[in-house]
Specification:
single chain, about 30% helix, Aminopeptidase, globular, three-stranded antiparallel β-sheet, alpha+beta, four-stranded antiparallel β-sheet, about 35% strand
Length: about 160
């Protein structure tokens, strides 16, 4: 596995990772209607700009292609964190998170925030993130149980 910076040509693979992570990986936490609204298609919306081009984003890949990606905006909001279902628990998210955390510290960010799903919450709690609030989040005609979390970089070694 290798972790590298996101490139424009990664957009199609990123969309498929996102789609599978939501549709398959989140199946035990969100119902079919929620997952369909959250990830409607396995392809990018070419009518919209690629949001990761304005963020710091890393991808993990192996000999089969992209297995996950994670992105952070310039203010320290962790926007996207998704891995393929078959690599969950195999170190992909941890490797991506390590790159993101190193970069956040190098940029001088003092605090990171995220609106986490159930799966992401478990991962971030293991990394020392604090649960600030549980919140029902409305999007695309659905209500999602999410978790607002934060990490103070100033207090970690």
């Amino acid at each position: 596995m290798q972790v590298r910076a996101y490139r424009p040509e990664d957009r199609t693979a990123k969309a498929l990772v996102f789609y599978r992570a939501v549709r398959e990986g989140a199946a035990s936490f969100y119902d079919a209607a929620q997952r369909a609204a959250w990830a409607p298609a396995p392809e990018p919306d070419w009518d919209e700009p690629d949001p990761q081009m304005d963020q710091w984003c890393w991808v993990a890949e192996d000999d089969r292609g992209m297995t996950g990606f994670m992105s952070l905006d310039r203010e320290g909001y962790l926007d996207m964190a998704f891995v393929l279902p078959e690599v969950m628990g195999k170190g992909v998210a941890q490797a991506l998170y390590g790159a993101l955390l190193d970069h956040a510290r190098a940029e001088g960010l003092s605090r990171l925030t995220v609106r986490a799903s159930h799966l992401a919450r478990r991962f971030f709690e293991k990394q020392g993130w604090r649960l600030d609030a549980a919140e029902n989040y409305a999007a695309d005609g659905q209500i999602y149980e999410t978790f607002l979390m934060s990490l103070d970089l100033g207090s970690r070694p």
